[in-house]
Amino acid sequence: MGSVAVIAAVLGAVPPVSMGWLAPMLAVHLVATGLFLRVLWRKELLPGWLVAGDVAITVALCLAQRHLVAEDALDTGSSWVAGLVTMTIVVAGVTWRIKVAVPVGLGLAAAFAVGVRLASPAHDVFGTLGIHLVQLTAILLLMTLLRRSSAATDAFLKESARAGIALMVERLRREDELRQVGSIHETSLHTLTMVGLGTYEEPSPTLRAQVVTDLSALEKLRDTPQADSALIALDTLLDEVAGRATGLDVHKRLTPETVPGNVAEHFARAVTEALANIALHAGVREAELVSTRSGGEVRVEVADSGRGFDQHRLPPDRFGVRGSILDTMRSLPNGGAEISSGAQGTRVQLWWRP
């Protein structure tokens, strides 16, 4: 839209348009347009400072209309500045919440009206003001609906991810139970069968050693915690999570480790979100997943070499980084998370201490 406005301004530069005013104004506007294109190319969120700068430039253009716009364009309401006002109202509504977007939109509409009156005191500005108010109302209603839908979608995805991970954890629990049952069958039941068949007619050191081993296995089964505290192979679970990452080649270095089921679930949910963020936003197709244990602390790291992001600029209602990574791990007793991101990529570090 910025380049179109520049072309329209140049083509419409007839008296009383002043090139001394028009040229520097368009140069500043082109710089702002270039910054917008850079953000678009990098697929980043629009920074507030850039939108604020665009608003300031548009206000200046509005107030200087008597030097920038031909009278015919003012009379028909088809000036290039009017188009810029519309786009700036839309961008402000997309970037900011209602409490900021409303005064900004009203300020833009007022600046345009003042600029038209300065250029042509007899010109009627109320019709244009009405159009701008309708545009402002429409974009705010649309963004309110989109944000609510986005919040509902995030909540649904959060529950879906949690349910999927819970199923994986439960499956690993069942596999562990089956292994334990198989162990009992191959040890104590086998020993009792041999005794019942008369294989051992008198006490023997071999039988005594086998009974000790069988008793140890039974005591271990008795002491195995249930439900959320049941031990889960974290490396196996993370390997399965990495295998489900769409569009990513995940390089894994996983240390065999067992943790309680609820701890494994928290790690899996955070890693799932970290890998999803890489696939969607990092602009790369490779990631690294590492798990270690040091000094009694279990640590998991997810890293990429793609474009980073500023987590402090993320909207507060966005679920991903804040909800599924930081809050998930910090809600775990003795757990935590840290994210570092920059030009060299993003590194997500997760930890838990028993």
Automatic annotation (TrEMBL):
Keyword entries, A-Z: Kinase, Membrane, Transferase, Transmembrane, Transmembrane helix, Two-component regulatory system
Catalyzed reactions: ATP + protein L-histidine = ADP + protein N-phospho-L-histidine
Keyword Transferase among record annotations: yes
InterPro entries listed in its UniProt record: HATPase_C_sf, Sensor_HK_TwoCompSys
Transmembrane segments: 48-68, 80-96, 101-119, 125-146
The protein's name in its UniProt record: histidine kinase
Ribosomal protein among keywords: no
EC number(s) from the headed UniProt entry: 2.7.13.3
